[in-house]
Amino acid sequence: MSTESIIEIRGLSKRYASGFEALKNIDLDIRRGEIFALLGPNGAGKTTLISIVCGIVTPTEGRVTVGGHDIIRDYRAARAKIGLVPQELTTDAFETVWATVSFSRGLFGKPPDPAHVEKVLKALSLWDKKDSKILALSGGMKRRVMIAKALSHEPEVLFLDEPTAGVDVELRQDMWNLVRELRDSGVTIILTTHYIEEAEEMADRVGVINRGQLAVVEDKAVLMRSFGKKQLTLHLAEKLPAVPSELDGYDLELNHDGSELIYTYDTHAARTGITALLGDLQRAGIAFKDLHTTQSSLEDIFVSLVRRSA
Amino acid sequence: MNLYAVKAIYLFEMARTWRTLLQSIVSPVLSTSLYFVVFGAAIGSRIDEIEGVNYGSFLVPGLIMLSLLTQSLANASFGIYFPRFTGTIYEVLSAPISYVEILLGYVGAAATKSAMLGLIILATASFIVPVHIEHPVWMIVFLVLTCVTFSLLGFIIGIWAQSFEQLQLVPMLIVMPLAFLGGTFYSIEMLPEVWQKITLFNPVVYLISGFRWSFYEISDVHVAVSVVMTLGFLSIGLIIVAWIFRTGYRLKA
Ligand SMILES: Nc1ncnc2c1ncn2[C@@H]1O[C@H](COP(=O)(O)OP(=O)(O)OP(=O)(O)O)[C@@H](O)[C@H]1O
Ligand SMILES: [Mg+2]
Fold first, then answer.
1. Judged by CB atoms within 8 Å, which residues 50-69 of B form the interface with A?
2. How many Å lie between the alpha carbon of B108 and the closest alpha carbon of chain A?
3. Residue at B253 is within a domain
4. Which of A35, B27, B199, B242 is most buried, judged by most C-beta within 10 A?
């Protein structure tokens, strides 16, 4: 993965005809070859952002380039690089899988290439369905047909707008394997999801959008580190009415019935202070029968970010 | 020019025609043939010749025109409305194609289909009533121009419509009456004087008159007027479509 940008978004705003401001002055760079996860609550503006880059929604202000090509002035070159799997499950009904995927390839200006279409269908386990009419497929299969359509013209950038909504566990695993393979072959992937553990597992970088504004864009690892907090929970031998004053120097909390003492610390501080805390506890005569630690997940980080920017 | 895309859309739309052969070709041909049997062969034998042409023969150009108008509208409006309705239009909007190419694909396919239909009806009619074509080239010109113009109009309706009901509205409430009153079944000279004048506001009069002239050299208005008017309708359609594409009207938010 390089730091060269494949998509550059500058000062992008969108006001719908209703007057609703779905995006407010977005600046974002997507790096060539990365997996970028766009997170945000319902209505945050994720689909709007993707739709503008793909040419389905007209921006109100700002500019976007894809591979250096302006999406409006040089739309042909920009769009030819993009594959889109939209959030809504929208497919033809009476066409066969083969016909609809071949149609997409033609639409994007590529000469027919049965070998490529075959490869895509096989990769998505759709090969044995190639002559089935789409209306005879299950929802998960239709989702895969939409992915096949998006991959039919060998895009450099793939947008996956909630690709795993309504998809079973096994297919989800297959899908993520495919995404990794695509990334390894050089395709840049931008995905949205409400399953934050997916982003945590898959993404190189994460962007959190809320109410049309980007709250944060960061390397996933950095994000988890900088927001990552650990908590040490001590199950006390005897309940305490309050945190003893000898321990005022620590960031300590007592749970509701006084049976657990919770210590929050930063994993990346020079010292965690655990050793000192344990020593001070002993000196104060507080005994505990068990302990455990928890680390905040991307989900906690996400929730705190969204709350903060709300 | 993204010719692969034009071809993809065109073939996709034509595939729909073959898939629905019965309703898209067989049924309009059958229903138009019934007109020839009833009004041409049966009742027509009791009706005087019109300007030296036997009534059954007189009907042929008008009835073909009637099918061209209704079928072009229906095909083209459905062709673009349906992907809007199902949402699959996203793909066309996100593809590297220009508006001209979208038009060539959708309107081209709809026009091809109704032109084919017109020719099949013509062939069928010639078995039932006597038909001769004085100016075959002009006949084809009028046929093609009409198919393209009304497919374009259908395309506009398909973008404007917000429901299947609205999709039927313009063809049923405006185009059908205009076509019936536009001289399909009579020469406008047969109307009272006042109505002869009023009828000239009906665009379909010019289409049918020109088309009938290419068959029998009889017309309600001069053939040059028909040509100019037809090209005029085509231009109006193109202007509206250009505006739709420029503003993204009902296509893009
Ligand atoms: N065509 C439209 N006209 C008016 N408002 C719209 C339109 N499309 C979307 N919006 C509004 O814009 C906001 C952002 O919508 P968007 O679909 O981008 O959200 P999202 O982040 O994709 O949400 P979700 O997670 O639910 O998919 C929402 O408040 C939505 O109601
Ligand atoms: Mg969305």
1. none
2. 16
3. no
4. A35
CB of residue A306 inside a 6 A radius of ligand 1: no
Residue B187: per-residue pLDDT = 86
Burial degree of B66 (CB within 10 A; 0-12, 13-18, 19+): buried
Q: What residue in B sits closest to A85 (Cα-Cα)?
A: B91
Residue B193 contacts A where some CB pair is shorter than 8 Å:
no
Tokens (6 digits) for B8: 């993809």
Residue A63, SS3? strand
Q: Measured on CA atoms in the order B95, B96, B97, B98, is the torsion positive or negative?
A: positive
Please name the residue ranges forming H helices in chain A: 46-54, 75-80, 97-107, 114-123, 139-151, 169-184, 196-202, 220-227, 274-283, 298-309
Query: How many residues are present in chain B?
Result: 253
What are the residues whose beta carbons fall under 8 Å from the beta carbon of A138, sequence distance 6 or more?
none
Tell whether the model's pLDDT for residue B81 goes beyond 60: yes
* Whole-number Å distance between alpha carbons of B85 and B80: 9
Contacts of A107 in chain B (CB under 8 A): 4-5, 8-9, 91-92, 95, 97
On chain B, the residues whose CB falls within 8 A of the CB of A49 are none
- Nearest CB to A109: which of B15, B93, B96? B96
Distance from CA of A134 to the nearest CA of B (A): 13
A82 touches B: beta carbon within 8 Å: yes
| Residues B244 and B251 sit within 8 Å (Cβ to Cβ) | yes
Number of domains forming the structure of chain B: 1
Range of the structural domain that residue B67 is part of:
3-247
Which residues, in sequence order, are CB contacts of B243 under 8 Å at separation 6+? Answer: B249
The predicted structure's pLDDT at residue B140: 97
Over chain A (310 residues), the average pLDDT of each successive run of 10 is: 85 96 96 94 94 96 96 96 94 92 96 96 93 92 94 97 83 88 95 84 91 90 72 89 85 88 76 84 89 76 71
Alpha-carbon gap: A266 to the closest alpha carbon of chain B (Å): 46
**B43 versus B92: which is more confidently predicted?**
B92
Yes or no, beta carbons of B8 and A90 under 8 Å apart: no
Q: Please, are residues B80 and B16 in contact by the beta-carbon 8 Å criterion?
A: no
Residue B26 included in any domain: yes
In a domain, B185, yes or no: yes
Q: Whole-angstrom Cα distance, residue A194 to residue A199?
A: 9
User: For ligand 1, what atom is nearest to the CA of residue A44?
Assistant: 21
Tell me if B252 is assigned to some domain: no
- Give the separation between CA A256 and CA A258, rounded to whole angstroms: 6
Has the ipTM of the complex gone over 0.90?
Answer: no
CB A62, CB A204: distance < 8 Å = no
What is the reported pTM? 0.85
Q: Contact B253/A17, CB-based, under 8 Å?
A: yes
